[in-house]
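Session log. Operator J.P. requested a structure for one protein chain; no other inputs attached. Running the standard single-chain path with C-alpha cell output.
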Amino acid sequence: MVQNLSEIFYESGRGKFWDERSDAGNPAAAHCIRQYVKLIQEEQAAAHVVPKQAKPIFLGKIKRIASYIDNELGRVDISLKERYVLLRDQAWMKLQFFGGNRANDLAMLVGQEVKRLDDNSGLVIKQTFGKTLRGNKHKCHVFVITKCRDKTVCPVIGLHMCTYVQGCKRMGVDLANGFLFRVVLENGRVIGDRVTYSVMYERLIRYLTLLGIYEGETPHSFRAGCAVTLALSGSVTNVRQMMNHVGWYGEGTAEYYSRLQALVESDYIAGRLADSAGQCDFVEDQFQQYGDFNILQKAFH
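Structure written below.
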C-alpha cells in the first residue's frame, strides 16, 4: 500500500523523495513512514502474524493472457490505442516474468539498455537504474532472455520480433531510445513518458478478471513466480545464480521470494531424514565417537 501511495504521489508531480527540511516532495517516502512500517513489522512478528507474500503468477496464466491478447489483436475494428496497449502489455508481462524484474524497475527500462545476442537467440538487458541501483555507476543489473519453444509466452518474440517493437514501428513509434514501455493518449498517440506501476497493476487485474482467473495477483506476482519457477524447474543450482538473474543483493530476499528452503531444500532434507530411520545405530555411534564432547577425554593433562 505504501508503494502504491508513493507511485500516486509521483504521478502527481511530487517526485520520489521527501525533503524533511522543506516538508516537500513525496510524503509516502518520508523517513517516519519507513519507521512506522518497520515498527508494524516488528509488532506483527511479536504477535506471530505470518507475513503475506505476493501470490506467484505462473506461465499457465501468462499463456492464457497472451492468447487472449493475440485474439484481441486479430480484431478488424481495433483502434490504434487498443493495439498499442495490447502489444505493450503482452511484451511487459512476458519480460517481467522471465526477467523477474520489479515492476517499477521495468518501467524505467530504456531502449538503449536492450541488446541482441550475436546468434539472434535472445536479448541481453543491462539496467542501470532501479530501486537497488539508484543510478550508481558501479551497479547494474544484467540478465539474458532467450527464445522459448512455446512461442505464445516467448519474451523475445513478445518484445522484439514481429510484435511489440515491430508493431510500434508500423505505428511510427521509435523505441530505440527512451523508455521502452510508454503511455498512450486517447487519440492513439504514444508519448515519451514511461508507463507506471499503477497502470500495469490495473491492466493485470483486468486481464485476470476477464478470464475469470484473478486470485489477488499484483505486478510483484511475476517476480515471485519467476523465483519459484527457477527454484523448482532446476534452472538454478544455487541461490547465488537466482540472485544474479533476478537482481537481488541479499540471499535472504532470494530465499524469501523463491521459497527455496521450503520447496526444494526442505523436501530433500526431509526425505533423507526419513531414510535415516534404518541407520539409527550408525548415527548414534558416530555422534558418540566424534560429536559428544562431554564424554571425550582431554587431549592434554
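Operator note: The chain has two domains: 2-46, 59-260.
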